[in-house]
Amino acid sequence: SGNQTLIDQVVTRNASRLCSSKSIVTINGRFPGPTLYAREGDTVLVKVVNHVKYNVSIHWHGIRQLRTGWADGPAYITQCPIQPSQSYVYNFTITGQRGTLLWHAHILWLRATVHGALVVLPKWGVPYPFPKPHSEVVVILAEWWKSDTEAVINEALKSGTAPNVSDAHTINGHPGPVSACPSQAGFKLSVQGGKTYMLRLINAALNEELFFKIAGHKLTVVEVDATYVKPFKIDTIVIAPGQTTNVIVSADQNSGKYALSASPFMDAPIAVDNVTATATLHYSGTLSNAPTTFATPPPKNATAIANNFIDSLKSLNSKKYPAQVPIKVDHSLFFTIGLGVNPCPSCKAGNGSRVVASVNNVTFVMPTTALLQAHFFKIKGVFTTDFPGNPPNTFNYTGAGPANLSTKNGTKVYRLPYNATVQVVLQDTGIITPESHPVHLHGFNFFAVGKGLGNYNAIKDPKKFNLVDPVERNTIGVPAGGWVAIRFRADNPGVWFMHCHLEVHTTWGLKMAFLVDNGKGPKESVLPPPKDLPQC
Ligand code: C2O
Q1: Ligand 1, closest atom to CA 102?
Q2: Count of H helices and E strands in the chain?
Q3: Four-residue CA torsion sign, 64, 113, 140, 156
Q4: 220 beta partners
Q5: Ranges 3-17, 31-45, 224-238: which has the least confidence
Q6: 242 in ligand 1 pocket by Cβ < 6 Å?
């Protein structure tokens, strides 16, 4: 705690899972990567040294990076990537935040293995707003592919079709015994009867929303995305890539072994990795060969179970942690999100077309200079500020798609004045098929003030918004064939990425950026970049 400098070496290593082995990119040789512990108010310095053949960048997912977008990490948005044999020091201060977050590579598909927990403890002497658990454990959910993930996405881009799904899910790096490899051990969580444990759950998967449950035990949810919620008890939680959830488990059985399980949530007819990862909650004093109690995972399309969790989330909204929901909206935006199809003469498997994704019909094209650099140094020709605040054509978003499925390419940003209040309605479309999209906004937390199925109704739906204690997060699932409304205050100058956190959709172009202008005050402008900022 206090100021700390950490060194992250980006290196490859061999790892074996599912009874076969392959080379993976890691931080310091670890999968999942090391947990970064800090305290609210700390300044963190992480020197990232790139020893692999890929360009690299690291994102501190959910850290607001007030005025320090240079440390945010998305390649070509806030920085040029760290090239092979180069290094860069991420330098940021954690202001007004505490809780569980994650860090991950933000370039190519390296996030598959380059990720880890980022635990921000409250300031010294500041208690949690719930009874202190006996102990705390980081639990990272992710995926494992038998093949190289860069090859998986490159193959899909060449053919124009969807990439393969993973071969198994993982809990703290291990799938546990699965039919493809019954002998492999899973993660073991040792507990003592009568004690309480806080699990800091993180979904670091590339492409799958996951259900998580523990046989024979209820979960008391106390925090999501590093914001406190009104505690509630539930059997099963749903967690999308990029999201975090703290749950308290009371070890109220006397002994035994109980399975933790992570299984897919997908409410659209789209292929998923259907292999459930398991780990074991093991009471002290229980023999290691004792039988494990399993719980049946929810079916993958168990939307009601997912909604039961999502609809229970409310900001704690206490005196100490008030929900500061913007009441008056300066910029009211309506973004359609979803998939489309563009011509691709060389795409043989796609019959001359490729799947793309878009926001308001714009498929975002990655620039070759970082947007924040272009903005700060006034480099012309890198981006345009004409990102549409509304869809170019209206249609029945959740019905059959329009006749023309193609999208427009562009590197467009939506410009906001400093401190403007913003509402964005994110509307899923059924252009190819309705599908849930976990949308992540960099640089801000937002309040999820409304949600519904079907087409958003701008007259009727706002009357039902929760402006008192809506959940505050940085990544929100837009329901398949439905919408969510989010609100935030643009009090962080810089360029901030917003994208679907399913990596395949980001790759296809479901991404855009907000450009927030400097304010007039002394602490309302982007700080100058560090001297070692990578160049493109
Ligand atoms: Cu966790 Cu832009 O990502």
Answers
A1: 1
A2: 4, 33
A3: positive
A4: 233, 248
A5: 3-17
A6: yes
CB distance 111 to ligand 1 below 6 Å: no
Spatial contact of 276 and 263, defined as CB atoms under 8 Å apart:
yes
Residue 505 beta carbon below 6 angstroms from any ligand 1 atom:
no
239: exposed, middle or buried (C-beta count within 10 Å: 0-12, 13-18, 19+)? Answer: buried
For the chain, the 3-state helix, strand and coil shares in percent, each to the nearest 5, are 10, 40, 50
497 lines ligand 1 (CB under 6 A): yes
Residue nearest (by alpha carbon) to ligand 1 atom 3: 61
Tens of pLDDT, residue by residue over 77-134, are: 999 999 999 999 999 999 999 999 999 999 999 999 999 999 999 999 999 999 999 9
pLDDT in the model for residue 3: 66
String of DSSP letters for 333-393: EEEEEEEEEEE-TT-TTTTTEEEEEEETTEEEPPPSS-HHHHHHTT-TTS-BS---SS-SS
What mean pLDDT is predicted for residues 289-296? 95
| Model-wide pTM > 0.95 | yes
- Is the CB of 442 within 6 Å of ligand 1? yes
Distance 138 CA to ligand 1 centre (A): 19
ipTM of the complex in this document: 0.99
Spatial separation of the C-alpha atoms in residues 174 and 191, rounded to whole Å: 19
Mean pLDDT (whole number) for 160-184: 97
- Confirm or reject: Cβ of 499 under 6 Å from ligand 1: yes
For residue 497, the ligand 1 atom closest to its alpha carbon is 2
List the 362-364 sheet strands across, edge first.
408-410, 362-364, 353-359, 331-343, 421-428, 482-489, 446-453, 472-473
Q: How far is the CA of 494 from the centre of ligand 1 (A)?
A: 16
Beta-strand pair 408-410/472-473: unpaired
Place of tokens 């403007």: 420
- The CA distances from residue 184 to 73, 175, 261, 269, 270, in Å, are 35, 8, 15, 31, 28
Instruction: Check: CB of residue 110 under 8 Å from CB of residue 154.
Output: no
Q: Residue holding tokens 């500061």?
A: 324
Helix intervals (H) in 174-311 = 303-310
Asked if residue 440 has its Cβ within 6 Å of ligand 1, the reply is yes
CA of 71 to the centre of ligand 1 (A): 13
